[in-house]
Amino acid sequence: MLKKEDIDRALVLIRNAKRICCMCHRNPDGDAIGSIAGIAELCIQIAPDTPVKLFCVDPSPPLFSYLPWVQRIEQELHPTEGDVFIVVDCADPKLTEYHERFPQIFGGTWSSICFDHHETNKGFGTVNFVIASAASTCEIIVAFAEGAGLAISSEIATSLLTGFYTDTGGLLHSNTTPNVYRTVARLLRAGARHQTMTQSVFRTAKLSTLRLWGRVLEKIAVTEEGGAISALTESDFRATGADYSELTGAIDYVNAVPGMRFSLVLTERGGKVKGSLRTLRDDVDVAKMAATFQGGGHRKAAGFAVEGKLVPETRWKVKKPSIESGIKN
């Protein structure tokens, strides 16, 4: 899956680093959190005396609190924090929201390593491990660890297993390939805490989360294009007492409406509208839909964020040309 020369180049960068910074995209999901935690542990194995810090503009959702590195993720990045930057599960630098303040991280001035599985990723790192066919970024990091001859501890295995499970919907989505099952088996043999992970991610929900999801489901509307769309305003979050991170997973239920071509959940926050898109169909490309709003992702799971706010009419609506840009006739 990975080229030996790229693995060797990455190992040299990590071993020669004085300070290592790992970062992921805003609003982190299980693959982002699992990737950043897993690669941080591997960096310590590669360069035991080098400080490693983790950064994300948004805190980790509470459901990933079983991973020890989660408590060490910081929000404020400073220029002196690192001389080697590792960016995981991020198709575009702007998704970190550090790109405007620190363009040198992504422009080749500073050394960086990119691990990602989004097909829209153009390879912005000094060394790039971008495999669009991978089910998750964690799958790529497993390949890196094995290619570099690194040991996968129980903690690393648990972190990486998290990314596999969340990005494949618990091994249910169509991206669950034979290699996914083989790799998951190796992680389990390495001591991944499978029951701890599944209990926290799939079988635990706060009361505020359930109330928020209830509003998502209550507001579902079906469009002329065959889309199931729901929208949450800032007042919905205030009324339910839920944090924005608690929305993780709700779109899978919107996407479960029979006969729909795609699903879309819109949220507003701080003057921006975020959209999460999903589809179960092979003739619909939600990454193209997201690209209409300068977003991106995968054919069956994508997202975007634009300046503005949600304004209800008779129901929530996305203009037809934007949606149809990703649908084949």
Could you outline the blueprint of secondary structure elements for this entry?
Elements: H1 4-16, E1 20-23, H2 30-46, E2 52-55, E3 73-74, E4 84-88, H3 103-106, E5 111-116, E6 127-130, H4 137-147, H5 154-167, H6 178-189, H7 194-202, H8 207-218, E7 221-222, E8 227-232, H9 234-240, H10 250-254, E9 262-269, E10 272-278, H11 286-292, E11 296-297, E12 301-307, H12 320-324
Parallel strand pairs: 1-2, 1-4, 2-3, 4-5, 5-6, 8-9
Antiparallel strand pairs: 7-8, 9-10, 10-12, 11-12
Helix pairs in contact: 2-4, 2-5, 4-5, 5-6, 5-7
Question: How many helices?
Answer: 12
User: Under the CATH scheme, which class of the largest domain?
Assistant: Alpha Beta
Tell how many strands the DSSP assignment holds: 12
CATH-defined superfamily of the largest domain: inorganic pyrophosphatase (n-terminal core)
Radius of gyration: 19 Å
Task: Please describe the biggest sheet, giving its number of strands, its sense, and whether it closes into a barrel.
Answer: 6 strands, parallel
Which fold name fills CATH's third level, the topology of the largest domain?
A: inorganic pyrophosphatase (n-terminal core)
Structural class estimated from helices and strands: alpha/beta
Average the pLDDT over all residues and give the rounded result: 92
